[in-house]
Amino acid sequence: MKRLFPVFLALVLVTLSLSACGGKSTKYIIATDATWPPFEYVDDQNNIVGFDIDLMNAIAEEAGIEIEYQNVGFDPLLAGMAQGTYDAAISSITITEERSKSMLFSDPYYVAGQMIVVQKNNTSITGEASLKGKKLGAQLGTTGEALANDTEGATVKSYNQIGLAIQDLLNGQIDAVICDTPIAEGYVKNNSNTLKIVGNSLTTESYGIAVAKGKTDLLKKINEGLAAVKAAGIIETLVQKWMAS
Known about the structure:
It is a single chain. This protein has helices at 4-23, 51-63, 74-83, 143-149, 162-170, 181-190, 216-231, 234-243, and strands at residues 27-32, 35-36, 40-42, 48-49, 66-71, 88-89, 104-105, 110-112, 114-119, 135-139, 155-159, 176-180, 195-198, 205-207, 210-211. It has two domains: 26-111 and 207-243, Periplasmic binding protein-like II (D-Maltodextrin-Binding Protein, domain 2, 3-Layer(aba) Sandwich); 114-203, 3-Layer(aba) Sandwich (D-Maltodextrin-Binding Protein, domain 2). The chain is globular, with a radius of gyration of 23 Å. Strands 5-1-6-15-7 form a five-stranded mixed sheet. The chain is α/β, with parallel strands linked by helices. Helix 2 (51-63) packs across helix 7. 39% of the residues are buried. The longest helix is centred in the N-terminal third of the chain and has 20 residues, at 4-23.
C-alpha cells in the first residue's frame, strides 16, 4: 500500500488540477449605455434591464458564454470598443460603415430609424425640411447627432443622455430632438399631452452587437446564439414585452 500511495496521490493531484482548469470560464465584458429605454436602462432596483439586455442574456445562454455588463456613456462606449476596452457592446448601436472600421458587428437584430420629436403645440416643424435653422438636440455620438449636425443652419446641442435632451425639449430650451424610432415613440407615449412625432423616419438603420476587433471567435459565438434566438421567436416576444403599445 505504501508503494502505491505516491502514485495514487499523483493521480489525485492531476485530477484536481484538470478539474480546476476545466472549471474556469471566460467572462466577457459587455458595455451598454443604460439610458435608452426601452432597450437599456436602470430600473428602480438599480438593475440594468431592457430589450437589449434580455436579448443579450438569451444569446449568451444559447452560445454558452458568461457575460457581465458595464454601464458607460454612449460616446465612451464607442471609443472603448475601438480601443478594445470591452469585449462587446449592445446598446441600440446602428451598424455603420464608419464604425465598422474600428469594431466588428454581429448580424443585424433590429431595424429602426431616426425620428423628430417636438412639443405638441409646435406647428413650425413638420418634417426634415423644416428643421433648417432650428435648435436641435440629440445624444452624443449617435446617428441622430450626425443628422442634426448635417442640418443646414441648425444649432445643435449634444447630450450624454437622451432623457436630458427630452427634458430640455419639454422646457422649451430646444425646438426638436432627433432620436431612434422606438426611443421617440416611448417618450411620446409617456408624455402624450406634451410631445409628438412629426414627419416620416429620416433613415432606416439596423442595430447590431459590436465586438472588439480581433475577437472573431466571440463574434462567431454571438452570431450563432443570435441565430438560435431568432429561430426560437424570442425577438418577437421581446418586442411585445418591451415595445407593445
